[in-house]
Structure formats: C-alpha cells, structure tokens
C-alpha cells in the first residue's frame, strides 16, 4: 500500500513536468487555434540544448534552462513568421500540415546531427527518504521548477501589458485590433512564449530520463492527453491535467506491466474526447 | 456504366495497364520493386483522399487500416493456413466491420479534434498490438518458411503479390472515381464545404461520413496483408508507423486533395523522389528535411497541390483529369 502511495507521489512530481510541457501546446492552441505539431521536436530541442550546455560548457542544467528557453522564444518567432502566420484562420488541415512540415525538417536535422541513440544529462541531486522509499532530488526540483514556471506564466498573462494583449487577441482578434493591439505581433510573441515553455519543459525532462531525438514525440502525445484532461488555453488547468496524468501513471504502475500504460493513456484520451465532444472545449465554440 | 464513356476512365485503365505490363515485359526486378512501392503509396493516398479530400476530415491515423489489415491477414495465413487472396479479402472485410463499428463514433468530432482523436487511435492500437500476445507482442508475426511454396516458390510468389497489389491499386482508382461521380460523392463534397448546410439540405451526414470512412479502410487493409506477406514479418513499429501515415497526407497534398489524379500523381512522384533521395549520398540523411520543406512550400503557396496549379493554368483539363 505504501509502495502504491510512493509511486503515486512520484507520479505527481513527474506529472507536474508533463503539465509544463502541455502548457506550451495549450497556450498556442487556445490563443490562435493552431495545434502545434512541432511541439515534440521542440521539446527534444530543449533536451539537447540543456545536454549540450551541461556536457559541453559544464553549465548547471537548471541554469541552462534560461538560455535554452530564450533560444526557444526566438525559434518560436521564426517558426511563427515562416510557417504559421499565413495559415491562421484557414481550415485546420493547413496549420496541422504546415507545423508538421516544420516538425519533419527539425526531426530530420536532429537525426542527422545526433542520430537516434540515447543521451542523458548525468546529474543527481540528494533526495528525500520516506521509510523504504526515496524521492530523488531531480524529480523534486523539476516539479518545483515546473510549478514555478507555470505560476510565472499565469502572473504574466494576468498582470503584464503583453499578457493582457495576448488574452485580448485570444478572445476576440478583431475587437483587439480595433483597440490598437497589433494582433499579428502579439500572436508571434505568444507563439514564442509557448515554444520557450516547451523547450524549458524538455530541458527539465532531460534531467529526469534518458532521451533521443525522437523522444519529443511521446511527450507531445502526452501533452495532447493533458490538454484534453485539463482544458484549453489555461496554464493552471494544464498543470492540473499533467499532475492527474502523472497520478494515473503512478497509480497503475505497481499493478500492470509498463508497456500497457500507453494503451490506458490513449484509450483515456480518445474516451474523454468522445465523452465530451464539445464539453471540455465548449467555450471556444467548436 | 456511364463511367466507361468518359476519357478519364480510359486514362486510368492505361496507367494500370502500364503498371501491370511494364515489369514483366522488361524482366526488370528493380522497376517492379519501385512500382510496387508506388502502388502501395497510391493505395494509401487514394483511399485517404475519400476522407480528407472528399469529406474534409483529416485522418492522421489512416495507417491503422494498413497495419491491422496486415496483422489480420498474416495471422489468418500463419494460423489457419488460408490462401493469401482469401486472407487478404477477409482482413479487408474485418477491418471494414471494425471501422464501421468504432470510427463512426470518432466522426462526431469536428476539425482538429477529429485529427487528434485519429492520432490517439493510431497510438492506442499500436500500444495494444505491442502487448497482444496472440499476435506476437512486440516481436510480431513471422511467416512460416513454406508459405511461399504454395505459390510456386519465392520468385513466383513475389510476382503474384505484385500483380495482386496492382489489382488493389486499380480498385482504389476506380473506386475513387466512381465515388466522385456518384450522388454519394456529391454528398461528401457538400459535407466538406459545410456540414450543417448539407445536413439541412437532406444529406444523411452521419451515415455518409461513416460509409466514407469505412470505404477508405477496406483497400488499405487488403494492401496491408499483401505488403506484409511479401515482407515475411510484421511488427507493431512498422505496421502502425505514424510517419507513413503522415507521408500519405503529404502525397495527397502534393498532388492535390479531392482529385483522383492528384492523389495518384502525388503518391507516384513522392515515391520516385524518395527513391532518388535515398540513392543520392548528399541527401540521404536529409530526406525528412527536404520532404518537410516541400510540404511547407505546398501548404503555404500552393494549397491546391499540383492539380490545383494545373487546373488554374489549363482550365479545360478539369473536365478530363478528374
């Protein structure tokens, strides 16, 4: 029983990082109605960014998150202006395909640079022991960092001028433009922020598990599940959804083989989509 | 039988005849392999066209039909010793039944949500099959050694499988064309343009969508059996390869969605282009990069694909090349 509890607690810690990853996806989705299929590739880019700064320059992986997220922001701007700007407001197929095209380019470049062999960021922080169970320091710090970044983003969206502009464009682009908000530039910055958060989440995941160029894909799928669980365009909801997913993973791990977990996750994902075809997303008018 | 009087019917028939006759006449095994893969791509893209191009529903999980068909067919061949053709047809029917029963629920979702659910289904199916012991779990199913012997040895078997694949490709082309020209096809196009309006005007939208989805699954399932029979082994990673699934969408977009010619041409060109990239040493590691860049340019600047451009340039061709 204690084992299950410990497994669930660990699931919560990892789930907070899943939630952070999903925030990048759900922010972009909620603000500009674009499902960003480059998400996974950019999570992987964050992983390799932290890996390179850590093993190349000896930078502390948690400090390395700052330059990695900054680079993510710039890459996000570049992707927005080159691939997303022209397809906003067009049928969903167009934005799905244009972001998927960028994803193919990024994955292709990554594979030719790093092949698909596994890498890891070799760091281990002292953990906390509870009886026979130990929570590693990496998991604790990553969860705290994830919650801090999510909280920071929430404050940013509520309090700052740019944050308010993003919310305004998200709820009614035309009205926002009439009020003098440069909508395209705000969307580009929102896209950049979403990507910055995705790369930061990737960097945190790199301190937890080994990874390859293709690992991002798995976390992208988890981000979809989290978005469906937690609702759209809402950082707190995404964090809660991530923690819920982690809790489910941690809760079932002691009872079944690990390879069955994806079956449960995706069945849950499709099930929730079907049970609430409009419900969870109703307020966006689909 | 109105179809037979149209020039496009004879154009399709000529292309199919070229596929069927060129390799045996030239005894060129390399050409056969290249056309085999082209036929597989044409089958995937052509059937996907029924759902994406005609109905406007983006199915990222279309590879599930191909993979499940392959698994069912190989399982029937190895366990029940059924002849290949019977196994392939049964696999097609079984996948159609599963599609009709399950996918019609997903089709209630619209736009991007349908696309996401289709990714979820593909991943769930792959994860399930990887754990499903009767189908060998993660190691997959292997064809028994003697399987080719019943067809007169491996050499003859490969030729037979090639001709069967060309037959499935022919069925795909004729089916796409017949659907496009029918009242059913017209209903699908109406759903693509505006589902609510189509419903109000009396198109039975849920029924039409389910039928389109089911139809789009049958022939890829048959092709899956043939493909993995030739392969000799089927594993979850290959059978439910999400990359191939999205590559099929790329082919469709390149050629021009919603047109029979576009789907086939896009698939054929993509296969040729891929073959060239794999051979060329400079590009072999950049295959994905180039395919991605090509897709991006198509989506941004040529959303109608190759056929969209052709129609704009020579409007009269619209009546001949459907």
Largest interface: A-B, 44 and 44 residues
Q: Helicity of chain B, in percent?
A: over 70%
Calculate Rg of chain B over CA atoms. 19 Å
| Spans where pLDDT lies below 50 across 5 or more residues of chain A | 281-286
Structural class per helix/strand content of chain B?
mainly alpha
Question: Which properties best describe this structure?
Answer:
heterodimer, A: 286 residues, mainly alpha, two-stranded antiparallel sheet, 73% helix, disordered C terminus, B: 322 residues, two-stranded antiparallel ribbon, 15 helices, 77% helix, globular
Describe this structure in words.
The complex is a heterodimer of chains A (286) and B (322). With 286 residues, chain A is mainly α. Chain A is 73% helix and 2% strand. In chain A, strand 1 and strand 2 (133-135) form a beta hairpin. In chain A, helix 1 (2-32) runs antiparallel to helix 8. Chain A is globular. The N and C termini of chain A lie far apart (43 Å). Residues 281-286 of chain A have low confidence and may be disordered. Chain B has 322 residues and is mainly α. Chain B is 77% helix and 1% strand. Chain B has 15 helices and two strands. Chain B has a two-stranded antiparallel sheet with strand order 1-2. Chain B starts with 6 loop residues before the first helix and ends with a helix. Chain A binds chain B through residues 33, 35, 82-83, 86-87, 90-94, 96-98, 100-109, 111-112, 221, 224-225, 228, 257, 259-260, 262-263, 266-267, 269-270, 273-274, 277, 281, 286, and chain B through 52, 56, 58, 60, 105-106, 108-113, 115-117, 119-121, 123-124, 127-128, 130-131, 138, 246, 249-250, 253, 285-296, 299-300, 303.
